[in-house]
Protein 1
Amino acid sequence: MKKFSSLLHNLILTPSRNTKIKLLQDYFKILDINRAYALEILSDQLSFQFIKASKLRELVYEQVDQHLFDYSYDYVGDLAETISLIWPTNKKGKSQNLSTLIENIKKIKKSEINTEFSKVLSELSNNERWTLIKICTGGLRIGVSERLVKTALADLYNKSVNEIEEIWHGLEFPYENLFQWLKNETSKPKIDFKKLFHPMMLANPIDEEKDFKRLDANEFQAEYKWDGIRVQLMVSSNSVSLYSRTGDNISSAFPEIIETTKGDAVIDGELLVGGNFKPSGFNDLQQRLNRKKASKDLQKKFPVFIRAYDILFYKEKDLRKLSLVERRKYLEKFQKENTTNQIDLSTIINFSTWEELTKYKNNSYDDLNEGVMIKLKNSEYLPGRKKGYWYKWKKNPKLVDAILMYAQRGHGKRSSYYSDYTFGVWKENELVPIGKAYSGYTDKELLVLDKFIRNNTTNKFGPVREVKKEIILEVAFDDVFPSTRHKSGVAMRFPRIHRIRWDKPINEVLSIKEFKKEFKID
Amino acid sequence: MDFINHQLFIKDINVHIDPILPKKTAIITHGHADHARFGHDHVIATRQTIDIMKIRYGDKCAKKFTSLRYGQKYSIKNFDFTLYPAGHILGSAQVLIEKNNHRLVITGDYKVGKDETCKNFKLVKCDTLITEATFGLPIFQHPDPKDEIQKLIRSVKINKNNCHIVGAYALGKAQRVMNLLRQQKYNETIYIHGSLEKLCQYYSKEKINIGKFEKVSSKDKSFYEGKIIIAPPSALKDRWSRRFPNPIICMASGWMTVKQRAKQQGIELPLIISDHSDWNELLDTIKKSKAKNILITHGQEDALVYYCKKQNLVSKPLSIQGRSDEEIE
């Protein structure tokens, strides 16, 4: 454990990619089971069923005063780090290796978690505790992507990264077949690809100035970009399953899709809420998200469907190496053979110049798409966000000027800075908050705002600071909906700070009434 | 204790403690720039603090100097002042103010742990304690500085082709890092950024063991392979640091406890070496001082105020203007 935790410690602090690769390779040279656990952790596959963030908070409150913990957490901005630092270390137990530790934790019964897991935490050093908590909460965020791990392995054993990439999602702990193949002891592991979740092909934002000059409009086609959730639908004669973008199986939440879909294919599409293939907005979709099950009532009130973008497998045929245009033919064929009320096809927008496409992008302000996707006609289906194939081009955001009211420290790389802002508009002579944003500003603006907040705090509510009402933020957002949860009666979708309006006096900010009128909210 | 206000100003006799702006009479706890300023009429401090002020600001940085030994009483009207060691840096002092049998102690910046570069902290019992709180959160529990300095020594041994640049404040921390290296039998010449030279010379003159040091000069790049260089934190990001071969950026500071902070600042090898008390030392000092009235300044006051109130002590934060709550020397 000591060795693995200092690996993570060094990885998080090393800015150099090459050093990171070297650190990983040094660790992977170990030839025992610890190596497999490390790979499982670094690819975010390991978790403990009963020990999640909420459990850890419960445990830490048993150890230290809740207020003192909260003050500390606010300062540190990272749960794992706060707990690891504040946790009282007991006289050190025997240092265990990674595999023993994990196996022992897995053996802990649910009823004994509080005592047994607390004991484990007490016997570790700060750094080991930090590592273990990171493993529990998942998502290490140590500046090491899955791709980098694969690169380190590939370079160490003279294989190509793409070869590892291809079989990656079919591999399982303890990865014996992988390591044997890497060492040339066996041939490449055989994987039944069709049964696996396939990492999705993602788009990069288009750079209007550079890309349109560089790219030939005739080599691309476009589709609308829908604001739902991206899904992968796997259909075979005996089962249907639905996966989210991160590979989570979400079948049970959408029974109407599972029950009605027929055929034999792997489909990539967008899950949307609405009847008769008319999407009704993200607000409605939210009623169906984060639920394990959906009642008949809910299914009726908020019906869902899939707008299909792409097809990866048709029957036994792996289509991923074909061009987008050819895959589309298979998609249309699948749709014709298996028509249901739950799947339709994404429309292809034809255009011959980029100017022409601009019309489609900005068209129909009320329409529920977010802009357009621009896809290279002969692109293969490539996992991840590869450059040069697919682009997204979002509509211009909506903008409003609002007054900075409250601020809170951020988390992760922005911890210690006051980087989370609540802003509001007028309601008679008072301000009412309309949203909260923690992105969009430049590093320079962040420093200016941070300094302003520290010097102009008028009130503190725990970690939240109220500030002098002087700063006007131009807030960009994708959409705004009526909401009963907020005092202002509105909820914004993806608000971010567009710029600071130094030029505008605060009495020129809209009232909530004017705001609702402008964005057509009753 | 009504005789002193939240700016550490005693109106009756027109005396300030560590004032930011030029004042008539200023008692200075130590030489760091956020405490010792240029331009007072009369400075009262330890001999070393006065020496350090003169090195940094020139001999005429105040019109008049009065140097006090630790424990020596100095009276102005019916106020008695005594300086006691604060263990923070060379010359650092706590200020005991006595008036009509009321004892008030201003700790200034202090640390309880052992340090060969200055006189060790002395606990002074009092009725009112004005304590610093730079590391006033329970996450701050400073490790043994010897273990931290060993990390540096080990890294130097392993990474023979790299040079190690250690960020450390020019006054106090830099010399402490050098002294710790010497305690751990690192006997090579230590290379220093030019801005450290005069202060290092002064420490040497004061018989503090910082060993052999030399100002960085424009030598062949490869010369600095395997060497330790000490520089003020501001120089780490500067063009200055690019002249060295494969530098590993280190930082000696209590803030290095938090990995996220180290990462934000681009520090590859954090060394948790602090010249301030950690959480437990702050609590311990409050308890042992027997003070019933605790005023808290400099840093993370909230948690410490909360803790004192829970112990039935009268406590409130004291916000002194011109001091940011982080990144204090």
Protein 2
Amino acid sequence: MQVNEYKPLIVAFCCNWCSYAGADLAGNNRLNYPADVKIIRVPCSCRVNPMFILRAFQRGADGVIICGCHPGDCHYTSGNYYTRRRMALLFSMLDYLGIERERTRLEWVSAAEGAKFAATMNDFAEKVAALGENKRLEDLRCKK
Amino acid sequence: MQKITRDTLVSKAVSLLENGTVDAVLGWGKGEFAYDVTPTVFETADEIRENFVWNDFCGANFSKYLVSKTRKLEGKILVFLKPCDTYSFNQLLTEHRFDREKVYVVGVPCEGMADISKVKAITGDGISAIDFTDNGLVITTLYDDEPKTVAYEDILAERCVNCKSKKHVAYDELLGETGEVLESARFDEVAKIEALTPDERFAFWQGELSRCIRCNACRDVCPACTCEKCVFDNPNSGAENKAPANSFEEQMFHIIRAFHVAGRCTDCGECSRVCPQNIPLHLLNRKFIRDIDNFYGEYQAGAEVGTRAPLVDYNLDDLEASDVFERRDSE
Amino acid sequence: MRKCSLSVLPALFAEIAKSNTLYIPASDNAGGAKFTKWEEGIQYLDTLNTVKSPKDFFFPHTEDLMEFKVTGKNIELFDIREESEDFVVFGVRACDVKSFDILDRVFLSDPVDSYYASRREHGVIISLACTRPAETCFCTTFGIDPATPAGDISAWKTEDALYLQANTQKGEALLSSVEALTEECDSTDVEAQQEKTRKIMQKLPLANLTTDSFGGGKTLELFDSPKWDELSEACLGCGTCTFVCPTCQCYDIKDFNTGNGVIRYRCWDSCMFSEFTKMAHGNSRLTQLERFRQRFMHKLVYYPENNDGLFSCVGCGRCLSKCPISMNIVKVMKALGGEKK
């Protein structure tokens, strides 16, 4: 194994009711996913303001993933439907500005889907690792 | 040249003021030169007769002023709105930003407004007089013996070249006739940028946005930006920043600015008009409009009062975020 | 006085750039001009005014002042300022040159702003006389002669030649370093050009603007004028006028948390902004009228009161062409009695 292998920093916004529990389940089942995935718990995926995502990139994240309940399963009935529209537009905008589209993702992970959580994170980390460091959205001041 | 004359607007304003229908008139006020028109609240007929201006430089969209002016004034205010301004007017009404009862809207037809920077690119600085004629603007400068005629098609503002509608969607009274919603090529430029490679797109926007001086004019003029306290002015938001920092900060500001008005932006083009650095900010807004049209069905903000903006609405079978690029690339 | 043919201009730039960083007006690719670092291929743009004034060279829009690191109960301070290098700015107009005097009085009086002072020491200004003033120009109102710009070196550009005249030691040193490219000459051509420019200045639409009703001591008379209400009526509260202004000098000092330390930086502030001079007790100017008034009272009354009658406006006309609602210092002055009858 290479010692200096590049490991991307991933920020995962997980909704409290489904995806965070899914991450918990992944842990309980001893499923592996990269330690560089930093989970931030939010009450609902629609709590994720686009600024959170941009701020994460500014402060050194190489990829940002938002995880919420499956459509129809939102604890608050409809939060994830709003998330879906917002993120579709935001991701498309980031792409328009020349940001690699693989750096952002939205996934639905239920509380029972520990395996999906781990698999999603592994896949996402791999895709982001292939892109290398996030240069386009970083805030140079945070590099010091 | 505008078909409707200044005299028509002035006599309308004066008569409505004098018969007590309105107590004040929001119109364009005379400047030092022919082109530097200032939005003005007129309270007497004499002021109107003396200082009211109507010409090809009356680009300012007055809709947003209604939010503050209806609060400040006791009575009713007359506002002149061009077709594209009426969309912003409706959008503000949809968001309950002012009392409709306190406003009297007079719709004015618009033949498209001139962009003074385009004029100066042709004639150079030192403009001493402008005559508005059927053939174009006749510009006299300090440096040329003969006045120069510039055709309207060469100096029309970008947003007017790509005018989306000549139809007034809100008015109490119309001067002249209203027009139709137009087929415009306003998304062509967006499509052109989409067709570039990611690296080219990044370079393009880097080039444009790095000129930003964070004056906030784009936000302050925007009829969709009417928050009482903007997130970028709020020291507790963590996003307040008066400075164009040496990194991603400007892009952050512009992405969020455009995002916050996505679905509510009527594409009036004021952001690009006021930018002191000529950043094509409308291309960010139009990107959102185009995506909304493609993903969720055609939607024109402000076309009607009371519609739900796409970002505060959803369908059960909406496009998944992961399918966005597939959808777009297959177009 | 020295002169060189315009065809020598690229060589002149190259020679200056050998030992200094050189900035010249060049296209900003958006219809405007900006001072751009000269290197092979950068074209000099014959423009009247750059969009942003050259005040950035001495008082940058944003600059890092220092850095802290906090570990436990210890705080470490780092001086992170970049060492100023010698630089030359070519093509600064008379109005902008005058603006440096105005900034100097603020930043170089006690206590001296060492960041500003260091850059001022390292900078050499080559000014350039105007030949085609715009309708928005009114520098003569403030006693500036656009045909005789100050600066370390004054320059005049005619159709075929560039004339250079050193005014300071720094200027002389720079001029002697390019001696091989220039030749001694008399001032006949320059004088002819000056004469012509001065004639144009008299014909400008704003030539009748005067400062007679302004200056120190006018605070009580002007502060409560009913005119402020209508003048500020349409103001959007954006910072355009203050950010393109060569003499606006307000700044804010802020901390930025980088995650592993704090950068204390300074950035331009604007009296037009709602959070201008906001402090612990709140905000001292709550309405746009008060903030708008502040800008013009500062330039036309407060500043001259504290600086021997010197006005803090140079008549460059940038706010006239850039204000989104076309409200500007000329309209304010005229409304408050600043027009010759």
